[in-house]
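WARN no homologs supplied; continuing
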Amino acid sequence: LCLPLQVCAQLCRRPCYCPWLPPRCPRGSPLVLDGCGCCKVCARRLGEPCDLLHVCDRSQGLICDYSTGPVGTGATCNFEDSEEGCEVNGRLYRDGEVFQPSCKLQCRCLGGGFTCVPLCQEDVRLPTPDCPYPRHVEIPGKCCPEWICETRDQYLQRDAGAGSPLLPSPCQEWGTEWSACSATCGVGFSTRVTNQNRYCRLETQRRLCVARPCPA
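OK structure emitted
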């Protein structure tokens, strides 16, 4: 609603004179009619300035909130029920809403921010007698990578190709934290599982450690 009516009369002129081409809107901002119901404009998003002509995105539950600042300083787009929300990749989510930005993550909007948990298991598979050459690979048509058991020939062939510049083999480094020292005093050792080696192969590494000197 335009108050007072004189303001509407000054802003909303008839007939409408609109650009030949509609504006190109940023991601997450749809084309809507302006406050006069005349020309197409980009809907304003959460926290963006707004006025009688530049309207907020009603599909996201936003209104032009004049209570966010002193009188005469303008208004900003806010949720109608004053709930906090969050914006991710150009999309707005209400407080408490659960969403998936990708098939590997599930997130929840909370208090103006968001937290995410992985949907893919980050398990580690060490070499075993029945699977001496495990490998974590992306499976076509599936979101999460899976473990497969390579044969010795496949393993040797892939290792041979790893040293060739014609067959690049990208490796996503992964590793656990070093464990606590095995000895409370004197020399001990700690371990970790990592693939940070030449062949991008999971292996258990050990290193010497000294928590403190032993008493005489």
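Residues 1-7, 164-169 have pLDDT under 50 and may be disordered.
OK
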